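Practice set, problem 2.
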Amino acid sequence: MEFKDQVVLVTGSGKGIGKAIATRFVRERASVCINDIVLEDAERTSRELRKLGGKTLVVQADVSKEEEVKKMFRLLFGKFGTIDILVNNAGIGDGLMVEDMTYEIWRKVIDTNLNAVFLCCKAAMPVMQKKRYGKIVNIASVAAKKISFRGGAHYTASKAGLLGFTRHLAYELAPYGINVNAICPGATLTPLLKSRTPHAELKAELGRFPVGKFCEPEDIAEAVLFLCSKRSKMIVGQALDVDAGELLAWTDFESYKKGRKEYAKRVSGKQS
């Protein structure tokens, strides 16, 4: 197996897309660091992966905080000695419109979705540069190429910025044999999405996807595996859309505005 004994760090991998990515690498016999801000989620995922024979390390850390990122990498290097693959997956967002958004909320999303990626890349780069090998995959969003259907302007801005950072870092690291790319998932049926969105609403949204169904976390994981494989060695600084055709269509503004208001209320617990 190509990834046997490689060391992989997946941020935000306690559940959802991150968990699917970590699981895929464990099935390829890689050693995986499970990071999440919620310790219980990370430990649960680790237990499941160890049942598959995986070698894992659990690190609870808020990747938007520099000292916690530094601690995470100290633990990672102490356990595995190196890093081969970094998947920046951790992210947050809500459906607030700008008129309802505070600067504190804006900054928290930017810190988690964009600044955290900078911190993790900075920590991983020296080891990758020294051995002249590495793969970095940043999980962005189709929101980076249009606007977000569920997230607000802070989410859209963070993901658009992430694509810019991906291109620039890819240019700087390519001479060291390090590939940096991004994936732009469309709406993906994570446990979080399903818990926040009534089934009837999800069913009504299927018209936005020419494929006729939502992406699953495993679909994103397969794309990550491809971008980390030898088959993608000449792919540099690109953003791969995995969206069931979502970018091919959109909706009218009134539907957008109504959806934003209703989703924001649901997420904040103002209505069921």
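Problem 2, part (b): a different protein.
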Amino acid sequence: MKAYFLVRFSDSTDAFELRETPRRSPGPDEICIRVTAFGLNFADIMARQGLYRGCPPLPCVLGYDVEGYISEVGENVRDFRIGNKVFVLTRFGGYAEYVTVPSLAVGHLPEEAPLGSGCALAVQGITAYHAVIHAQTLMPGEKILVHAAAGGLGSAIIQIALWKKCIVIGVAGGHKKVEYLKSLGVDHIVDHHKGDYIDYVNQYLDGKVDVVIDNIGGKSIKKGKSILAPGGRLVSLGAAALSGKYGKLNLIKLALGFGFYSPIPFMGKSQSLIGINMLKLADHRPDIIADEFKAVQKLYEDGVLRPHVGKIFDHEELPQAHAYVGERKAIGKVVVKW
């Protein structure tokens, strides 16, 4: 099979090489999928820049989510058959024509699902479900502030939050993203190019929110905690503030920006700080991932999750796709097709 290998930490134009590599046959509990499309995520950008600690040694194949058709199944697999259309969570290796994964990390995808929908469900859908359903409980009427709200993950979180009848505050940058959030039915929208969400919350929402979803990291965590209501939850699931910033000094600045916390203030206000790393979760709790795949599949079938695929690139345009995501231009999910 062919796969795109990350061969150096660099600009997207010279970081990848398309190579022939052996295709792995599935074990007893595994499935092999012929990939039709793979998704890009911000973690891919950080990995390419040498900023993602979980990245395998070079050369390696990036990629956390794919969709496609089952080509082989292991002898113990009962819920899937050859030819089924599926969405898949990968432990790297997604930038390839075929992937072989445990059957627990696979979900059924309707034949009529638009290209890219499965990629969005596999990472953004599963992560969103974990962040706002499994790791906590959203209550009707709660105020939830979502950073990078127009991205694939932000969109999925918003859709689940609105389904739960929460009040959503979406933070994004630029007119197009603001208009997209309006189309989702977001209650309150903050264009961070024009104003500060803290000022907005103070002016329109009594200065407090119940949940903050933060993938920015660093100082943004402290800022989010300042508007967290008693009983509130601060969910940290990324460090986009580091994008494009190389070197150990920037890593140190980011870490210091996060701050150091004692549990005492959190106990005093009955607040929670929740950290999410889906790769670690998949490594140590595959049972949780399997349960969440079933739940996300059901939410898609019920129309709660409606993935928005903002842009589709041909596989030969992988460098351009990486640059596009790295510049934070994306609305919804960005995918690459074979």
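Answer key, part (b): The chain has eleven helices and 15 strands. The chain has two domains: 2-123+282-337, 136-275.
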